[in-house]
Structures are given as structure tokens and as C-alpha cells.
Amino acid sequence: MKLLAIETAAEACSAALLLDGEVTLRYQVQPRKHSELIMPMLDDLLQESGLKPTQLDAIAFGCGPGSFTGVRIAAGVAQGVAFAADLPVVRVSTLASLAQGHFRQSGCRRVLPAFDARMQEVYWGCYELQESGLMQALFPDEITSADKVTLPQGGNWHGVGGGWLSYGETLATVIGSGLKSVTPDLFCSAHDIALLGASGFEQGEAVSADQALPQYLRDDVAKKPANPIRFG
Amino acid sequence: MLRVLGIETSCDETGVAVYDSEQGLMGHSLYSQIKLHADYGGVVPELASRDHVRKTLPLIHDTLEQTGMGLDQLNGIAYTAGPGLVGALLVGAAIGRSLAWTLDLPSIGVHHMEGHMLAPMLDERKPEFPFVALLVSGGHTQLVEVAAVGRYRLLGESIDDAAGEAFDKTAKLLGLPYPGGPELARLAERGSPGRFRFPRPMTDRPGLDFSFSGLKTFALNTMQRELAPGLKLEPELAEQTRADIARAFEDAVVDTMVIKCRRAMRASSSKTLVLAGGVSANRHLRERIKESMDKEGVEVFYPRPQFCTDNGAMIAYAGWQRLRAGQCEGLGFGARPRWPLEELSPLD
Known about the structure:
The complex is a heterodimer. By secondary structure, chain A is an alpha/beta fold.
């Protein structure tokens, strides 16, 4: 399995190459530099491995939620590489990747990833580790105000992500005693996009390049104006 | 031989084209988002970006199919890097740059207004350097001295609204559907010239700068006076008055541009004027500029109407010019929402 993973939706810009179970990562936290960083990262990974894009099996990218522009950078790059090298694409939730990253780094098995969605809302997910060693969503990712998050059953939950920085108190109150820890300063990484992407690819979830589209979650992005005054 | 794929995503049109050294323009496709933005009365940047990321790749596919070639028959990629909406630009840049990297081709970020300026070169009858260009669009109104590709000197520009912007805003006041500019021009066709007289801004002093925001206010005041509900105008009479106001507005914009172009050409050693950008599709503007320049012994060039508005062909062509000269960029990509033409580098 040879898969290239791209993540530019969140604070960090990263790229990862999964090669027969081994992940090589390029990762940098530099806000608003993602468009300058991502292609050199991909180039570096492939140069080091001696692979050409056409020798890969698939591309995976963090499809959101996250910064709209950041998600589109990842989608655009995934589309371009996949179209030119004739590869399938796996869309991976950024919330899922953060949950996976939390398990990978801290061993947390029940994870509640949250990003600040601004406008008094959070992007919210609810993930549990499967026997495969990969995180799976118990509910679809959602966008909601912090006091209306969907509550999982049971306890031993670990909060992760920037949403816990902005709305930590409200979220903690809603979840109550089931909450074991909060880690607001972990960012999404292409490492986890690669792991989840490989599994998605094996399960037949890959799409064609033109379907490598973002999942914004927030769709009410513009208000239609009232009828203007018309003279005559 | 150099064959370049061009991608345009700077505002509300997705455009893709292929330009080739020997065969010229080989194919082009355009998807317009006009309907998407119509209900909002103007371009909503986030909606524009969302549409570009859905449409660009299918358009590239269509354009290649149209020309009967594969990606492996391209030698370079060009995309609009600015000026424009940053989110929209980044979509074209991400796709263009990643295509180039994967195919191991050079790529270049093109200046949108350079694309417009060079668009007449896509036709058989081409202007020769040096020339003066009047660039008029929804975002720009500029008079530029063009010595060669990349050698630009700004002679004058709008100090407030661009001409196209003034057209659109005035059209909105007249209750015309979005995009208002072309609608206003259509309404003006039925207007009687001379019933109202609007000022010709900044023509009473030397210089080549423009100002169009006052005309919009003048139009509003005229409407409030001539179309006041208290007047209880018959519908046909009100419609005629609206057409007359549209005509007076258009005449004022066109006259102002004619005066400034005449001034620019008299000060220039060049005898060639290029008219480009979305507003250059305005029939009245084309005729009046031509008429005035004929008297001055100046030859006028404009792009064919479909390449006046945003399109991929002009980006493929401008990119072809620069890639042909050996210019290309590194691995990173970016967008420059503001990008003065004068900062561009010459070809040599």
C-alpha cells in the first residue's frame, strides 16, 4: 500500500507518505503559509522514497471541517495530483484524524474532537477506537453551538482540539463526569489522514479526482438581501 | 513547441483553455456562476470559491476532450494568481500547481489584468508593441502604457469605483437584475440621448485618472427627482425615464473614457490603443472609442466579445508568453489579491 496524505485544513500544514505500513511525515505549524508549504512537502516525501506519483495507490486528504480556504487547498492539491496521476482519492474527516492522533499520541480510546467554528459554534465529533486500531465515528460530524453537542453514552471521554479552548467550560458542563481529560492544543496531522485513508481505500471508499470535494459542515455562508428599493 | 493549459478562477467565472505555439488557441471552456450570485445582488466570495473547487477539474477534462489530447501532451500550466478574490484564486492555484508537479511541467501564476490586456493577441489581427491599453472591468479602470509583455507603466486609474462597478451599482439602483452592467447597457439602448446630462468626472483638469462613484450618486438623485412616487408616472413614462437615465449614465462613462483615451494617445508616441476587460464588450464604448480614435489616426484593438469577460484563453496565452521566455515558479503556490501591474517582470 502506497498512499500520499495531505492535511491543510487546520493550524498545521502536513503531508505523509504511507509505504507498506510505515508513515513518513512532514509537519509544520505556520498559519497562512499552507499554500507555500504543501507542495515542497509532497515533493520531499516522494524524492526521498524514490517514488513517482503514478506509482502510488491512492491520495488521501483532510476534507474538513476546518478553515474553508485550507480545506480547499487540500482538495485542490488532491484533485490535481489524482487527476494527473490517475489515482483514486479518499476523503478523511479532520475530526476523525484528530481523534486518531489523540489515540496515537496519548492512548485515548474514546475521543471528543472539537474545532472552533466561530459564530458561537463548534465542529464536533464523537469517536471510539475499534479493534482495528482505528477511530470510528459514533455520530456523523456536526456543527452546533457548544451547549447542544450530541452526547455519547457512557464515560471515559477525552476532549481534544481548539474547540475545547474556546468553549471548554460549556462542553465540560454538558458532558459532566464522563469527561476524563481535555487536550486543546493538539492539531490534525497527515500521519492520521494516511492511516484512516489507507483503511478507507481498502474498504472501497475512494472516489474519483473530481469528487475529491470538501466537507464544510457549515453551509449557510451568505444571506440573501431583502428586495431593494426600486424607483419608478 | 509549447502547449499551455490555462486556468482562471479569480472571481465568478471558471475558465480553462489550451494555447499552443503553432496552433494557437486549441480549445476553451467557461462556466459562469452568474445564476449562483444573482439572488445575492453581487458576487459572494465564499460561494464563488465553493463553486470553483467543484467545476475546475471537470472543465479541464472537457477542454482536453474538446481538443482530443491527453494531459501528457501539455508542456506547461498557467493559472491566475491575482488580483482577485483570494479564496477563489487559491483553488485554481492549488489545482494548477499540483497538476504541474505531478506531470513534471513548469507552471506560472499569471496576472489577471495582463491576461485581459493580451487577449486581443488571440485574434488574427493583433496589436503590435508598443501600445496604450485601457483596461476596464468590474474591478479595474486603468490606462497603461505597454512597451512589451511585462513592461508596463500606469498612466492613470480610477481613484474610487471601477467603471464596471459603477455600471453594476447604478443598475442596482435602477432595479435591474444582477449582473447589472450589461442590463443597464441594454436599457440605455432605448433611452433618448440628451434628456439628462450627467457630469464627465475629472475631465476638467489635466491627468488621466478617473472617478466614477459620483455618477452613481448623480443617478440616484436624478431617480429620486424624476421617478418620485408622488409624481404618479404612467408605467410607460416611468420606464422611458429609467431608460433615459441609463442612457445619460452610460454616455457620461463612455464620454469620460473617450476624453481620457484621446488625452493619453496625444501624449504617447504610440498610435495603437487596446481596449480590454469586461466593460470593453460594451458596444457603445467600442463605437465611440473607434470613432474618436479614427480622427486621431489611432488604430483600436479589442478582444472578441467572448474574451472581453474573464476566460481561460487569456490566461493560457499570457502564461504561454512567460513560460516561452523561460519564466516559471518554484514548488509553492499562492494568491495575490492585490497585485500592481507595474510589479510584473519583463520577459528578458
